[in-house]
Amino acid sequence: MRYNAFQILRHGLAGNRGWRPAWRKAEPQAAYDAVIVGGGGHGLSTAYYLAKRHGVRRVAVLEKGWIGSGNIGRNTTIVRANYGLPGNSEFYSHSLKLWEGLEQELNYNVMHSQRGLINLFHSDGQRDAYARRGNAIRNQGDDAILLDTDGVRKILPWLDFEQTRFPIYGGLYQPRGGTARHDAVAWGYARGADRLGVDLIENCEVTGIAVEAGRVTGVETTRGAIRAGKVGLAVAGRSSQVAALAGLKLPIESHVLQAFVTEGLKPVIDHVVTYGMGHFYISQSDKGGLVFGGDLDFYPSYAARGNLPMAEHVLEAGVTLMPMIGKARMLRSWGGIMDMSPDGSPVIDRAPLEGLYLNTGWCYGGFKAVPGSGDCFAHLLATDAPHPAAARLRLDRFDTGHGLMDEEGTGAQHNLH
Hints:
single chain, alpha/beta, FAD/NAD(P)-binding domain, D-Amino Acid Oxidase, Chain A, domain 2, eight-stranded mixed beta sheet
């Protein structure tokens, strides 16, 4: 069933009793050509592109909970392509282009809103750094506009421009940046993959990875053994735990990143805004809630919740930047488990074991990468060769030291990225 205005009208007149489920409740088969571990945005998009672009239809996506129950439903929904280093720059550019045609591709409203993103800066040195980044973005072929204080004031007049310690000097503006509805992205890819014959298997936790003669041949799950020609891991903050089932130790640490939502308010924040002198970013959802986040909790954890000191730190930054939000009541907060790599950049590569493939190390960039990650990971699984947009996202850079992409310049420290 294709979604369109006629279908909405027809089913509405019939009391909306004729809609079919968006995807099947599939039962696991004995064997598949490829098994994707992880039913979040990266796993679902990989399965979709495997079937759509490469004709690999005997694919299963295994999710230990329900589809979309992990980080795809625990993020601040930001979409952007404003990275400055080779490797990241071309990858996120590729992903943004896929975002721009995603709703037509999937026949599903993911509420992609290109409302624009503004990274504020607060010193001469930070302005110079953002000017260099903006030039790198434009050289990649994407959009970037360097704004002075008056330029920012015209767009965001409600900011506190005269902060005593960190007055606003300007901002780097990407008009094509914005947000999307995280749950809808998962649902759209799940529906698209299902229509192409992919089995989406929920409540199916992987408990072991079968290895024979140095090659991965399948997985053990809570719903029985499943053989597979290839196994792809797309489990975000659980990457180290699942890879350990195959005897691998990944250069990944898992940290909690908190996010927050206020009560619904009238439209006031039209853009995505980030604070340059305190890790704080904010946008307003379609329901009116202010959605914002900040720094990691800075210690390894698998708990999908945060701590109060970091919540206070994020809120302090928000109120410093825009005092008006101090009167808003916070509705809820949650934590997502981030797979933090040493250089703050992702990995889409073959594992040292034949037949095993890795999609990990997304740090803060996981949601905005969903379409590009799925396309590139599917290409790798289908061809055993890296996609041109992900050619630098190699695992061996942490072994050799060549090709590291330290986007934030904080060194090889997982928790600082």
